[in-house]
Amino acid sequence: MDKLAIVGGRRLAGEITVSGAKNAALPILCASLLTADPVDLDNVPNLQDVRTTLKLLGQMGVRTEYADGRVHLDASNVDNLVAPYELVKTMRASILVLGPLVARFGEAKVSLPGGCAIGARPVDQHIKGLQAMGAEINIEHGFIEARAKRLKGARIITDMITVTGTENLLMAAVLADGETVIENAAREPEVGDLAALLVQMGAKIEGIGTDRLVIQGVERLSGAHHKVIPDRIEAGTFLCAVAAAGGDVVLRRVRPQILDAVIDKLREAGVSIEEGDDWMRVHMEARPRAVNVRTSEYPAFPTDMQAQFMALNAIADGTSQVVETIFENRFMHVQELNRLGANVTIDGNTALVNGVGKLSGAKVMATDLRASASLVIAGLVAEGETLIDRIYHLDRGYDRMEAKLTAVGADVRRIKGSAA
Ligand code: EPU
């Protein structure tokens, strides 16, 4: 297993180009199942979850080609409607093939994802929504088996706001017979990006970007050429890294408008951020101020930035509260940050962070994707060397993170496999 060795204390300066959004690319890749025509994508990030999705689609008979952020997909010869446990267990987002498969082929068999490091994460809303559209669903031997001659439009009100749930039901509804209304839909920009692709494929969707999606089903969809939106969480992670380590960095190919909540909190912490249409400049020379954070659905502060912001609060001047409202167990980074000298205590869904003057390098372990990113940020600040184990979590969702950080002056080294 690869590790990252980081020697902290370097100021960061230069430019970083942000990659395409993981959480937009994954549903968009799965949307290729909805048509027999080719789908071409640009700005697809080069990361493990994308490779896993391409493997999953490949096993189903989709022809996939990937090079330099471009993907060509051809789902004209799909002959296997199964998402096996071996792939689903490594990537929960595999559930995103369920909606498109039932919609186009009338059946699907997808392994149940099970729990994960950050919480139980059930998929009951995906299932309930498909049932409302007339799918017959059996859960047996760890698989969700869904069947429907043709899905029928329905009015669906999800019990909570769910990002991949909204995406799955949207992809099902575009080929259903009649009108579907999804109430309480997720408004995350990644849902909007998927909807933009679907519209290009010929889908009829109103209310994109709102919590009420109205879809008129069509008989068939055609191919499309789409560019994936920039990754707001990757961008936010680099903003926090510069805020914590100090420095002056320009981020290229970003969309500052979809990062408002994070930018506001960083400004409150004393960070200087300038923004243009597709760039941001982050500048920080002082110790950050502690800032309270509460995660919530878009457009509020994203849960996917909570761990990274906690690393910043850990070294900030003052005390802060970080409240996690989306996932019940997303504080796995806390004990590792504390190994680096942070002073964080947890009470239910709230972390109380007492900012400390310095962190000191140590061996730590990554437990999930964003927890890994938070340890990287802490490592950039800590005195001496921080060795982060299990960085396969980081590789799932960040495109060449260590190369991007090294380019702005960080001392980050990957230690391959058993050599560590
Ligand atoms: N939930 C249910 N039942 C469902 C669906 C969700 O109880 O059927 C609950 C979840 O357990 C959770 C809450 O609803 O407590 C919200 O979960 P959601 O379904 O929105 O999460 P997701 O779709 O599984 C996506 C992202 C996550 C991100 C969350 C929240 C993708 C591929 N994943 O997950 O990204 O944290 O939305 O914004 O889009 C990450 O990138 O590190 C990551 C975990």
List strands and helices in order, with pairings.
Layout: E1 3-7, E2 12-17, H1 22-31, E3 39-42, H2 48-60, E4 63-67, E5 70-74, E6 82-83, H3 85-88, H4 98-105, E7 107-111, H5 124-132, E8 136-140, E9 143-147, E10 155-157, H6 163-173, E11 179-183, H7 189-200, E12 204-206, E13 212-216, E14 224-227, H8 232-245, E15 247-252, H9 260-268, E16 272-275, E17 279-284, E18 293-294, H10 306-314, E19 319-323, H11 332-339, E20 343-347, E21 350-354, E22 363-365, H12 369-381, E23 385-389, H13 392-397, H14 401-407, E24 411-415
Parallel strand pairs: 2-15, 3-14, 6-7, 10-11, 18-19, 22-23
Antiparallel strand pairs: 1-23, 1-24, 3-5, 4-5, 7-9, 8-9, 11-13, 12-13, 15-17, 16-17, 19-21, 20-21
Helix pairs in contact: 1-2, 1-7, 4-6, 5-6, 6-7, 8-10, 8-12, 10-12, 11-12
Bound molecules: uridine-diphosphate-2(N-acetylglucosaminyl) butyric acid (EPU).
The site of uridine-diphosphate-2(N-acetylglucosaminyl) butyric acid (EPU) has 23 residues, from α1, α5, α6 and α12.
Architecture overview:
The protein is elongated, with a radius of gyration of 21 Å. The termini are close together. Strand 22, helix 12 (369-381) and strand 23 form a beta-alpha-beta unit. The chain is 32% helix and 26% strand. Helix 6 (163-173) packs parallel to helix 7 (189-200). By secondary structure, the protein is α/β, with parallel strands linked by helices. The strands form six sheets. Strands 22-23-1-24 form a four-stranded mixed beta sheet. The mean pLDDT is 96. It has helices at 22-31, 48-60, 85-88, 98-105, 124-132, 163-173, 189-200, 232-245, 260-268, 306-314, 332-339, 369-381, 392-397, 401-407; strands spanning 3-7, 12-17, 39-42, 63-67, 70-74, 82-83, 107-111, 136-140, 143-147, 155-157, 179-183, 204-206, 212-216, 224-227, 247-252, 272-275, 279-284, 293-294, 319-323, 343-347, 350-354, 363-365, 385-389, 411-415. It contains 14 helices and 24 strands. Bound molecules: uridine-diphosphate-2(N-acetylglucosaminyl) butyric acid. Uridine-diphosphate-2(N-acetylglucosaminyl) butyric acid binds next to helix 1, helix 5, helix 6 and helix 12.
